[in-house]
Design a protein that fits this description.
This protein has four helices and no strands. By secondary structure, it is mostly helical.
């Protein structure tokens, strides 16, 4: 069982978000929570954790992330070419 200080530290690292769910999905989430003696928030957190894990392991995400990195590197290269570094003035 985590100590109270550990629980407080974890809570400090959390971010609260607001998400709108269709009524049918929310009803399903609440039903799962009731069956598992849990909270809807716990069910949603577990579901999002599983979705994120599966998503980042997919080939589609890998391809999208590689394209994103290539684009970001190109933007940085363009910015560096257009704006010379600040340094001592040359006569």
């Amino acid at each position: 069982m985590p100590r109270k200080n550990e629980q407080l530290e974890e809570k400090d690292q959390q971010v609260v978000v607001s998400v709108r769910f269709p009524r049918q999905l929310l009803d399903r989430i609440q039903a799962i929570a009731a069956v598992e003696s849990s909270s809807a928030n716990a069910v949603i957190r577990a579901g999002m954790d599983a979705w994120v894990r599966d998503r980042v392991a997919s080939a589609d995400f890998r391809a999208a992330s590689e394209a994103y990195i290539a684009s970001a590197q190109q933007q940085v290269a363009t910015a560096l070419q257009e704006h010379p570094p600040h340094g001592p003035s040359q006569p």
